[in-house]
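Final report, closing paragraph on structural work. Over the funding period we assembled a curated collection of sequence-structure pairs, and we close with a single example.
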Amino acid sequence: MEKEFEAKSVEESLELACKELNVRKEEINFSVVQEPSKGFLGIGSKSAIVKVSINDNYNIRIIKEFLEQMLKFYGQEGEIIVDVLKTMSSYSVKVKSTSALSNFIGKHGKTMESVEHLLSVYVNKMNDHKISILLDVNDYRIRREAFIRKMVNDAIIKIRKQNVRRISLDPMDNRERKIVHEILSHNSDLKAYSVGNEPYRHIVIENLKVRI
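Its predicted structure, as stored:
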């Protein structure tokens, strides 16, 4: 969103923009639409007009402020790193700490997912367009993905060695199920499909070479 602000000088126009938008000067981009002019003997004088838009620094700040409060709520401390994946649209957010942050992650990452959802709702409320956020805490998602890949590969080995007809995996969220489907897409003798309702939705792997 771009908005124009008018005042006696460019600096005053920017101050007005920051006050109205409730942002800091480093959180806006601007261009001068009209330079101020005193005119001749006060006749034909012109105000300064600037066109202003909010930049990524704004979202980075509010993301960090939100998570700092959440960490305090859970009695934790950590470093918050925000990377811009797509300008004013998508952010990768990482929380790192020397402590385990287990109560901030929760069982199977459920607390972390809830925090991510609340953060996404908050940031989207503070913007006039959709913002995507992916939160990871102490590299939990990396470790979880490695675990899922091992679990799937172990299931594939079991199915083939023991001629098992089908195996049901543990419940997973949508992102995790996509990882499983991606792995199994390279195995033409196996079929994978999701069954059940959230949060118990899980994947079943079938051996197409084994007849009922």
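The longest strand covers residues 79-86. The chain has a mean pLDDT of 91. We thank the funder for supporting this effort.
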